[in-house]
Amino acid sequence: GDAVRCKRISDLLMERYAIYVQPINYPTVARGTERLRLTPSPLHSDEDIDRLITALTEIWTELGLELRAAA
Questions:
Q1: Fewer CB within 10 Å: N-end or C-end of the chain?
Q2: Contacts of 25 (CB under 8 A, 6+ apart)
Q3: What is the pLDDT of residues 35-61, one digit of tens each?
Q4: pTM assigned to the model
Q5: In whole angstroms, what is the distance from residue 40 CA to residue 42 CA?
Q6: Dihedral (C-alpha) 65, 66, 70, 71: value to the nearest 10 degrees?
Q7: Cross-strand bridge partners of residue 36
Q8: Among 27, 16, 23, which Cα is nearest to 55's?
Q9: DSSP secondary structure, 22-67, as one string
Q10: CA distance 21 to 4
């Protein structure tokens, strides 16, 4: 829900971890509903997914974002 933060997370994933995650911002989505588009494929291994989870957790913590348990 924050265009600047969304882009920053996407940039950090690419710069630090060589992981491309597309930021989705206005006008594709309404302001305040910005998000990251994750597109896993059959070519992504369990290790790739684990690496993404670790990277996102580190970035979320660094930026002071709330971490919630999976429902």
A1: C
A2: 3, 6, 7, 34
A3: 999 999 999 999 999 999 999 999 999
A4: 0.85
A5: 7
A6: -130
A7: 23
A8: 16
A9: EEE-TTTS-TT--EEE----TTS-HHHHHHHHHHHHHHHHHTTPPP
A10: 15
Cβ contact 57:49 at 8 Å: no
Identify the residue whose tokens are 């919630």. Answer: 68
Cβ(34)–Cβ(40) below 8 Å: no
- At residue 53, the pLDDT reads 94
Note whether 55 and 17 are within 8 A (CB). yes
Q: How many residues does the chain have?
A: 71
The tokens for 59 are 């970035």
